[in-house]
Write a structure and sequence with these properties.
Keywords: Phosphoprotein, Two-component regulatory system. By secondary structure, the protein is of the alpha/beta class. The chain contains 6 helices and 7 strands, in the order ββαβαβαβαβαβα. It has a single domain, classed as Response regulator (Rossmann fold, 3-Layer(aba) Sandwich), CATH 3.40.50.
Length: 156
């Protein structure tokens, strides 16, 4: 299997991504509205399969810093962000806080940011929404029906 190596900054550790993982993203992102953010290849592959089945165009970021940079470069391609909360480089909580600040400073329509969580506790959902600015949560791994419910409740 061939390898793709990316340097994520001068002081950042080198990340190796397999070709299989890099091929999960849609090749044409100009009209993408969704950003999938997770450092786990298996989670990205599962989410990609669901998004492909639904015919939704998306991009992939492997950590919060990449997500933030992608959002700043093209907020129109990140109308809904599915954000893992625990990742290396920059976690999803910090990335969400910085995205919300950027939206406010630039008077942008807020993106729908869905926290990908392991817990289904209402108190955790409330904390993520109130303290970090998440729009809602989605327990992972999720099924197509759970994502469809989020899409129906948070149209973009």
């Amino acid at each position: 299997m061939s390898q793709i190596e990316e340097q994520q900054g001068t002081n950042a550790p080198k990340t190796t991504l397999s070709t299989e993982a890099s091929e999960t993203a849609n090749p044409s992102v100009e009209d993408a509205k969704y950003l999938l953010v997770d450092d786990n290849k298996v989670n990205i592959k599962l989410m990609s399969n669901i998004f492909n089945k639904l015919g939704l165009k998306y991009q992939v970021a492997w950590n919060g810093e990449e997500a933030l940079n992608m959002y700043k470069a093209h907020p129109e391609r990140c109308k809904m962000i599915l954000m893992d909360t625990s990742m290396p480089v920059m976690d999803g909580l910090r990335a969400t806080t910085l995205i919300r600040s950027y939206e406010s400073e630039n008077e942008l329509q807020p993106a729908v940011i869905v926290a990908l969580v392991a817990s289904n506790l209402e108190s955790e959902k409330q904390r993520l929404v109130e303290k970090f600015g998440m729009s809602t949560t989605l327990r992972k791994p999720f099924k197509i029906e759970a994502l469809q419910e989020v899409l129906d409740n948070w149209p973009v």
